[in-house]
Amino acid sequence: MRTRYILPIISLFLIISGITTTKASGEQPIKPPSGTLEGLITNNGEPIPYATVQIKSTMIGTATTDEGNFAMSAPEGKHTVVVRALGYKPVEREILIREGQTQQLHLEIEEDVLGLEQVVVTADRNSEKRKESSVIVNTLSNAMLQAVQTANLSEGLAYSPGLRIENNCGNCGANSLRMNGLDGPYSQILINGRPIFSGLAAVYGLELMPSNMIERIEVVRGGGSALYGSNAIAGTVNVITREPVTNQYSISAQTSQIGSMIEDADQGSDKQINFNATLSGKENKNGLALYGSLRKRTPFDVNDDGFSELSELDNTTIGAQWSLRTGYKSKLVTDFFHIDEHRRGGDSFDLPYHEALIAEATEHKINTASASWHLFTGANQELNIYMAGQDIKRDSYYGAGKALDAYGNTHDLSYSGGVQYKILNPGLNIITGAEVNGGNLLDKKLGYREFILDEETMNVVAENVPSRTIADQKSMVGGVFAQLEKKINEFSISGGLRLDHYTIEDFVTGSENSNNVLSPRITMLYGLTSPFQVRASYAKGYRAPQIFDEDLHIETSDSRQVIHENDPDLKQETSHSFTGSLSYTIERANSNLELLAEFFHTQLQDPFANEIGTPDASGRVIYTRINEEEGATVQGVNLEAKWAPATFFDLNAGFTIQTSEYGAPQDFNEIRFLRTPDNYGFFTINWKPVEHWEFTTNGIYTGEMLVPYFGPLADDQEAGLLKESDPFFDWAAKVTYCLETNVGDFDFFVGAKNILNSYQNDFDTGAERDPGYIYGPVNPRTVYAGLKISNIF
Fold first, then answer.
1. CA geometry: angle at 338 spanning 206 and 313, to 5°?
2. Which 8-state DSSP code applies to residue 3?
3. Burial class (CB in 10 A: 0-12, 13-18, 19+), 511
4. What local confidence, expressed as pLDDT, does residue 15 receive?
5. Does domain 31-108 have CATH number 2.60.40.1120?
6. What's the Rg (C-alpha) of the chain?
7. CB-side exposure of 144: number of CA atoms within 13 Å?
8. Whether domain 119-792 has CATH 3.40.630.30
9. Distance between CA 104 and CA 74 in Å, rounded?
10. What phi, psi does 107 have (nearest 5°)?
11. pTM over 0.70
């Protein structure tokens, strides 16, 4: 059966199943609201404002006021009320609503200092408490992103254990995420749970998304192909955008000085303005969240050679989420955001691209939209139908030596659509679904008009150079998945299975690659209610032989240009991932502690590796992606610690010790993965010594790594040489003063990043420099100051 027929058939089947299940259970349709539920939500007698109060298995809900009070209409009958508030443990309570009467409900809720009771969705495609999840889920809240003063998604991910962000290009600052020792394409980036973050978006996308558009980030390390399909070998990063819950707004402005007090460096500046607003209708029947960001960064040259180490940026982002309660048991949620960004690196920023000695420049226009419809078909049964898409238009220039043939144009459309059905019963959860993910990518080098001298006539004549198609690819993956989770006393076990069929058509080479892939996963958890918890999991994953993010970025110098392409015989890469963890938690009034050790082992079969070619007469080098027949192994341990001895102090830290090796020597006769340190980690400390004041300090450690160098100082520039970097420690600090007034809260903040200026000190220089020879922290010493104004009304 062709894959395109799978989705509508499964969708129809699940809808019919849901309706049948509802009728079979004898459940009657919800009657119009006939009673009132009102009450008070407190903690130790103090009211909790802006907590959400919802009737379970319906879309009926509201939020508490400044004084912790709430009131809403409710249908007659027995119901379960769920109360949630940020930083507190959720509470469920049974109630009885009688027609024409008012039911009172006063609930005391407890603080959740360690976030163990926080509800997460990425681990099993289901809303579940973090402590009860059979795989480790790390969350980065918007409050945490603000505390460490991150400008974008890229900077925030560095504060999650097992994750590392690196800059891969000294010209344009293309960033890459490494998770558990594996580079960017091994990690699946999700936007609100949908895999529409394409390979083109991943080139610069982590830096394109401002942190103020993010409600939270959920990170799951380990194989996730059983739930999310291709490329989820190292793990998944789910970016969840702002949701409208209360009526509030905030606006902030920040200015930064890059390269402060660095000798011989031309200081750069980075300015950013952010705004957010959420509006919620009566009883949350509808809601609107708005956000936007303006950022402008000047180029930064650390060694005064006229060529930038940090690119010029001009970014504008706007977005919105709109939700509508279409019935007592159904809701429609839509999202949209637009990113418009210009970036340029190299030299001579006041000249056109082709007049500079080196210019790497891109202009992105990204539009992302999604729609999701949720319907409760019965008690603890939910149907979700969704669709999402991302359209990217990119104009680019990757050229050196005033080249005219370096202008390019790229169009990329990625999409995802599917259906998911959940049956959540006490002790047994079943999730099934089907989805189609795909994309169309077209990348061209533009033609131009070249004026040459005709040697016979000695006249200058014009010659048209036609455009060239670099990449023209169409990919489609259709899949069905199912997962069952069983809980017995302290034990939880879940098994998932996904069947994918992928087809990748390359219209440049005329080739087509397709295959059926079965991806199983099994996870186990012991200690559901115990302070000691033991987890273990196995997952199989894969990567299809498609175009990846590094293929769409070109490293350029005056003597060398790197082009990436796939070997015609490139085949699918397969992974087998094993993880095991031991955690211990203490939750007391005056001491909250969470310790975790997670061991990981990933075996790669036919892993992708680069075969470096010989430069041609024009200096062009082809990096050909091939399969390494001897495989590769990545293994290590992630260590985590969270400590909150009091409400005014908390510490969060993570450290990774790992090895990443091919089964046989690769380039430079080396089996170790390049640009992959064996150890790295971070810490954050938040301290509120007195009222109105907050002090935050954080640091990122990066161990030694092997970095290839192909610049003019290499003994053999064609063969290059391998260097070992020094370790780096990027330390930052921030002080915030909060002034509370009747018109809103005013947060004044000042801080510094990379205070010790632990920054690369051997950047290559000149037009022939190797732009790929870059490592260590992305930014040099930077000082900043700003103001945030917020209010809830």
1. 55
2. G
3. middle
4. 43
5. yes
6. 27
7. 26
8. no
9. 12
10. -120, 135
11. yes
